[in-house]
Amino acid sequence: MFAARDGTCRPERERSTVTIRWKQAGHGQARIASANLGLYLVRFERATAPPAPANPRFLPMIPRREFVRIGALAAASAATGCALRGIPKGRTGVNLWFSYGGTNREVLEALVRRFNEQQSRDYVLAVYQGDYFEGLAKLRTALAARCAPALSHVVGEVVPYLADAGVLEPLADYPGVRELDLVPELGQAGSWIGGGEHALVALPFNRSTPIAYLNADLFAQAGLGAPRTWRELRDAARALTRSNNRYGFGCPINWWFWVALVGQAGGSVVAPDGRVSLGDRAGVEALSFWQELVQSGVMKPPPGRDYNAWEQCNQDFLAQRVAMIWSSTAFLKYLEAHAPFRVLAAPLPANRRRAVPTGGTFWVVLRSAPSQEKAAAVRFLRFMHEPAQVIEWSNRTGYIPVTTGAVRALRARGYYAQHPNDAVALEQLSVAEPWPWSVELFRLQREIVQPRLESVVVEGRDPARALAEARALALEPT
Amino acid sequence: MKPSRRADPYWLLLPTFLFLFVFFLFPLGVLVRESFFAWDLLTPPRYVGFGNYRALWRSGELLHTFLTTLSISTAVVLGSMAAGLGLALLLDRPGRFPAFVRAAVFSAYVISWVSVALLFLWLLDADAGALSGIWRTLSGARAPNWLGSPQLAPWAIAGVTIWKITGYALVLFLAGLQDIPSSILEAAELDGASPRARFLGITWPLLRPTALFVTTTSFIASFQLFDVVRVMTQGGPVRSTTVFVYAIYEQLFLDLRVGRASAEAVVFFGLLLLLTCAQFLLFRGEEAA
User: pTM (2 decimals)?
Assistant: First the structure.
């Protein structure tokens, strides 16, 4: 009776397994289910609770809360398409939730298709879930509803938090994972301070650094080269601004670019001793630089938040409303393809030193998935790390190739000599700074720093005061 | 009428009660309970007492959200009332053209919020939008950044909402106007009352119950504003358009703070309850008068 009822949330072919587990669970839960007006979701929850003995956070909780949790999230899981449909018979289905739009989405879908055609054992079902933040919200909600996909990709800032919550599958012991020849700065070990000391839970896929995009025609007309320092950036922005229709510089008011500025001003967001310093003086300097550029009318404050602001910034650049922007290397191919002018990519300028954060996302396998799905997910990841796929992904999108084999092959082929714009982000890896492995990093980004960046740049608040407030908030218990 | 058995009415009420319990009262209880916990959906909940409420109050978020919502709502209510009443007075006449305009204005009320938001996102674009184009042509300068400036964005949101719900006010006011017996107006006209005097002395007093109804319903509707904000500004810039429902959404689905979102929802529920009580009292007062 119950096995048929849980079909909303699990794949059809798993139902028998679910029933067996249910019988093992005993009668106690049956009473709970019937006491709660027969809401079958409770039953589902009991049947597929993850074993995860290593993590005490998943020890049984009170049933009522479980019921509440599941009830509250039923809508979310239904909406995000928990069930796997359209998996060919006899193949292991892997639900992959992704957050790329535009070209990136097309390329990923093409690669997934290739994987599905090349072999007949596994089948990856790629489902678009909105931008990074939306996708992440859905993923976390689905995790709570025990309805998460086997495979997804998340921004680096959130990996320590998810790892700490015990929802990510350690990958090192899967066959072939240790042997992956990852570019050191882009893998888990090099992307976080001490990232190699934690269990391997994240594999790089679309990895980027911020770079500068210049309207080469406008720069040539003005006789300017790519700015190498903050001062040169300010001067170039001023020289290229036209009072009624063009700004010299544009950049999303976003944490990522602020972190780049903080590094360039000689600071770091989290001090070496683990204190959330927000760059101290460097943080203030970084914000003041933006504020001054906006207030002097040479930088366009982009409207919108999150990735709306990025898109707006790209559009401004393409429409020549802005002569130079900072954005992710991810948009290289898109901007090159759509600009009615020559696009020149350049490294970010230095202030006290050169520095960029890395960005983009990491593949994560969700621990809650059935083990055969997890194994299939890892097989897919290995396929994605083969040179052919890494190269195709990188060349068609602008993301940095994540394996040394792929980089070597591209170099040998003379690709970077032909496409110097593609080499910019790769070259910048020499000054890339790893993130702190901090559970708080994501909260710091989203809740504490991001809103204050906006208030300083858009409303003209005092940067020192805004950051002091942010530091104080960061110390508060959550 | 007396029930043959005392329990009968309760049996008959049971289905409704069950429905209300499962979908309203029980979730409400859960909500209140959750507001005393800190929970991120992934790690076990921690009891924090009134910590969530305190944090919301201390960070100024509650007050800020309330004031933002209140100012947008006030603008929406006043705007849609004035526009609805004005249009109703203009369009309360026979003929094809007024009928067409009535239908046109009401059609905005029927289409989806998301479509409206996308349409206005495009119209209000600081560079490529039609409104900005007109502004540039007329003034020769850069158009204001309607959605990018914290000073303008709340009013832009209010404006879009007014545009959307005016049709509703219009229909109600038209019904109210058509309820007023023409004999009274004709009598006043014969007695030499000016149009203004007729409006102030007859039409408006007789429209008051309608006006009250429009006010409270549009006030509540504007308190529940979400779609437009989600699509057009995501609560920004600098939280200037973070209205109540959006703030709850943000806490819950973006920051994954279930407890804080619940606390905010409880406060919001309390406010709406007060508003509804006020409406009841006002209506009773109207009826008694």
Answer: 0.78
